[in-house]
């Protein structure tokens, strides 16, 4: 295996942690998700009052959201990593447990610190 000389070790860690977070949520593996995030993570959606502080709240927020769906397909389309920060452009399709369809486009900015997710900003746009 040849390592790309333009990829830093910080970027490799960032890619790994972002992948772990996404896979833990998709698998509904809340123990693994908790292991991926910093105890003092900040998760927020700029332009709203939505903000969660701490690993316990972060995991609970994702668990609540995922369990409110009967089907959820999350598809990352673009992942750009620079140092300890990743930008993920994605879509989410599915059905809420109520039967209402779920269609979102989003951009998420994730900052990694000490091998764990320390901050996540999420910009969400509902689609019809």
Write a concise synopsis of the structure shown.
This protein is an alpha+beta fold. The protein is built from 3 helices and 6 strands, in the order ααββαββββ.
Explain how this protein is built.
This protein is an alpha+beta fold. The chain has one domain (9-126): Roll (Nuclear Transport Factor 2, Chain: A), CATH 3.10.450. Helices cover 30% and strands 48% of the residues. It has three helices and six strands, in the order ααββαββββ. The chain has helices spanning 9-27, 30-36, 55-67, and strands spanning 37-44, 51-53, 69-82, 85-96, 101-113, 116-126. A six-stranded mixed β-sheet has the order 2-1-6-5-4-3. A hairpin with a 2-residue loop joins β5 and β6 (116-126). α1 (9-27) runs antiparallel to α2. It is globular. The model has no long low-confidence stretch (mean pLDDT 93).
The CATH topology corresponds to: Nuclear Transport Factor 2, Chain: A
**CA gyration radius, whole angstroms:** 15 Å
Uncertain segments are: none
Beta-strand content: over 45%
Q: On the 0-100 scale, what is the average pLDDT?
A: 93
Major sheet: arrangement of strands: 2-1-6-5-4-3
- How many DSSP H or I helices? 3
Elements, N to C (H/E): HHEEHEEEE
Total domain modules: 1
- Which structural class do the helices and strands define? alpha+beta
CATH architect. name = Roll
Largest sheet: 6 strands, mixed
């Amino acid at each position: 295996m040849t390592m790309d000389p333009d990829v830093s070790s910080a970027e490799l860690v960032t890619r790994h942690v972002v992948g772990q977070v996404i896979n833990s949520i998709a698998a509904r593996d809340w123990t693994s998700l908790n292991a991926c995030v910093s105890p003092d993570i900040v998760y927020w959606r700029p332009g709203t009052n939505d903000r969660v502080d701490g690993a316990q709240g972060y995991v609970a927020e994702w668990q609540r959201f995922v369990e409110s769906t009967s089907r959820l397909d999350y598809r990352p389309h673009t992942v750009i990593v620079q140092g300890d920060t990743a930008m993920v452009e994605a879509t989410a399709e599915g059905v809420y447990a109520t039967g209402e369809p779920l269609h979102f486009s989003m951009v998420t900015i994730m900052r990694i610190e000490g091998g764990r997710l320390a901050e996540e900003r999420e910009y969400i746009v509902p689609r019809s």
